Each structure stands twice: as C-alpha cells, then as structure tokens.
Amino acid sequence: MTQSIPVELAGFTDLFRDLEEYVVSLDRVLSRIGAGEDPHILLEYVVEYGLPARLARAREFVGDSLESVIGADALEEIAEQVEGYRDRK
Hints:
By secondary structure, the protein is mainly alpha-helical. Helix content is 71%, strand content 0%.
C-alpha cells in the first residue's frame, strides 16, 4: 500500500530548489578539488552558503510532513537509524 503525504507546495518547491543547488554546487566543488584545487573551497561553500541551517530547515520540513502521517514515535525511530560523522581520532 502506498501512502501519500500532504505537503505545502511552497515549502516543497523551496526544498527542491535547495537540493538542486547542493547537488550542482557540490559536484562543481568536488570536481575542482579533484582537479587539484585546495579542498578548503568545500568548507567555504558550506559556511558561506549557510548549509547547516538550510539543511536543518529542510529536515524540519520533511520531518514535520512525515510526522503528520506516521507519528512522532515512528519519526524518532527513523532518526535513530542514521549514521552520522564520527571523529577518526
């Protein structure tokens, strides 16, 4: 059975626009790094374009949309399944 999730069109459009930017920009940045440019340009992109805050807003939008259908407990279970960055020290 397939369920649908009602989402606000403006929020969904903003999310797609941001994802499009991230994919295109990261491809460009990583290509430049692969061609020998200083990897610091990746950090510059992340900081200058406010990626952490923008990704947090995207997560909130998707999470709120999911939660309205599957509930807070199921959403929390999904969140607990992620693998985050781990220090290599």
